[in-house]
Amino acid sequence: MAKTYEPDAAIELYDEVNIDYEHVYGNNQLKIRCIDKIISMLRPGSSQALDVGCGTGVPIAQMLARAGLKVVGIDISPKMVSLAAERVKEGSFIVADLAHWEPDTPFDAVLVMFCHLQMNYATVHAMFYKYACALSPNGLLAVGQCPADYYIQTKAEAAAYDETRTYAERCNIPFWGKPSQDFAMSLVGQRRFLESMGLEIVDEVVDVFRPNNPTFDPEYQQYIIARRPGERPISTPQPLPKEEQS
Ligand SMILES: C[S@@+](CC[C@H](N)C(=O)[O-])C[C@H]1O[C@@H](n2cnc3c(N)ncnc32)[C@H](O)[C@@H]1O
């Protein structure tokens, strides 16, 4: 059965997790390396970055702002947005659902990291397409996720994948110390999905991150930076959601 998109569940979860998210996940060297790499490819002073699902703003928005980039952050959790605004004074933070918020200016970088776990594929598909279309020429789209490959191992578990093995709407990824039924793409599925929009992958790291809480399992994480080549039009990502296939 297709998963429904329930933004209220995300608000409830992240309002409760609050500042603890930063204590447990803030010092993530894989994420920090990815942001450093993005900063090295942008122009401080003139580049504008969008942090989608910004959380407390640490480390993503904070590193981008400290590097001299103009940062806009959006998040559905009012508590997360007020923490981000306190921490990153130079940034501009908005309480908004990433599925509905419409960018009204182009961005040189859009970062979508671990904010789409609670979503279904139709929402993820529309969200990536919208933010890829908001990239300026040669703009960068960065994605951080827990790839499904490590959590779907048996033949029975593989039934969670769509028929192209691009994504699983219900994947048993550990989050906040508990197994969940969250959205994830396969390693190759995430790459092909970005390439299907006409983006070029310029950087990728897959490694293990250990949360700063001994009771939480280590997480496999994938970070990809993809570039829009010049002004190339963005194509509709593939595969289409089942609802849109005729
Ligand atoms: C796991 S945290 C990740 C924070 C940050 N991106 C990072 O990687 O450090 C996920 C964040 O996404 C936000 N989020 C979840 N669903 C959202 C939605 N529909 N619209 C906007 N933000 C959302 C949550 O409130 C939370 O702050």
TrEMBL record:
Gene3D superfamilies: Vaccinia Virus protein VP39 (3.40.50.150). GO terms for molecular function: methyltransferase activity. It comes from the Eukaryota. The keyword S-adenosyl-L-methionine applies. One of its GO terms (biological process) is methylation. Keywords: Methyltransferase, S-adenosyl-L-methionine, Transferase. Residues 50-139 form the Methyltransferase domain. This is Methyltransferase domain-containing protein. It comes from Baudoinia panamericana (strain UAMH 10762).
